[in-house]
Amino acid sequence: MTTDIKTACQEDMAGSIDHMKHSFKSLRTGKVTVQILDNIKIDYYGTATSLDQVGSVIATDATTIVINPWEKNLVADIETAIAKANIGVNPNSDGETVKLFFPPMTVEQRQETAKQMKGMGENAKVSIRNDRKKANDQIKKLEKEKEITTDESKAAQDEIQKTTDKFIAQLDSILKDKEAEILKV
């Protein structure tokens, strides 16, 4: 019984870390990535569609992204959507492609991005702790209902705490590496 609870807890904690890593993709580091455009959608025949579904989106170098729509009439829609998204760059168009030229990040921007990243890390830690609490509550309920002994309950809670500590340490390591990446000039 406690094995299922511990397994579910581990999966939830791993999911919290995966979610944090996915959230990091929206952060800008020294090198611009096409993931910065993931949340930008345009109206494509009545459907909100991401940019990578209406054309090719390529990071040509560390500061430039080129969007080449498959239908040239979408260029104006893409420009408008990018301008509204407020990602820190104005779109440039030659009528066939949209180019985004990102200026190099300033020290202040890097520090602000690191601060956002730490906030995402704190949210992940809170989620992991909530997963621990949920698992411990389930174990305490089993003990209260006399389905497991007090010793089994204590052992299971200790194991969940060790799992929590392992995931928090993993998360701290990821945050440290990401912060170094962001602050590197």
Describe the structure.
The protein is an alpha+beta fold. It is 57% helix and 15% strand. The strands form 2 sheets. Strands 3-4-6-5 form a 4-stranded antiparallel beta sheet, with helices on one face. Strands 1-2 form a two-stranded antiparallel sheet. Helix 1 runs antiparallel to helix 3 and helix 1 (2-24) runs parallel beside helix 4.
Summary, kept brief:
The chain has helices at residues 2-24, 75-85, 107-144, 150-183, and strands at residues 41-44, 47-50, 55-61, 64-69, 91-93, 98-101. By secondary structure, the protein is of the alpha+beta class. It folds into 2 domains: 2-26 and 106-183, Ribosome-recycling factor (Topoisomerase I, Chain A, domain 4, Orthogonal Bundle); 34-101, Gyrase A, domain 2 (2-Layer Sandwich), CATH 3.30.1360.40.
Enter the CATH topology name of the largest domain. Topoisomerase I, Chain A, domain 4
User: What would you say the CATH architecture of the largest domain is?
Assistant: Orthogonal Bundle
N-to-C SSE series? Answer: HEEEEHEEHH
| Main sheet summary | 4 strands, antiparallel
The helix count comes to 4
Poorly predicted regions are: none
Q: How big is the Rg?
A: 23 Å
Strand percentage lies at 15-25%
User: In angstroms, what separates the terminal alpha carbons?
Assistant: 51 Å
Give the CATH level 1 class of the largest domain: Mainly Alpha
- The counted number of beta strands is 6
- The overall number of domains is 2
Please tell me the overall pLDDT. 90
Fourth CATH level, the homologous superfamily of the largest domain: Ribosome-recycling factor
Shape: elongated
Strand order of the largest sheet: 3-4-6-5
Kindly state the percentage of residues in helix. Answer: 55-70%
Q: How does the helix and strand content classify structurally?
A: alpha+beta
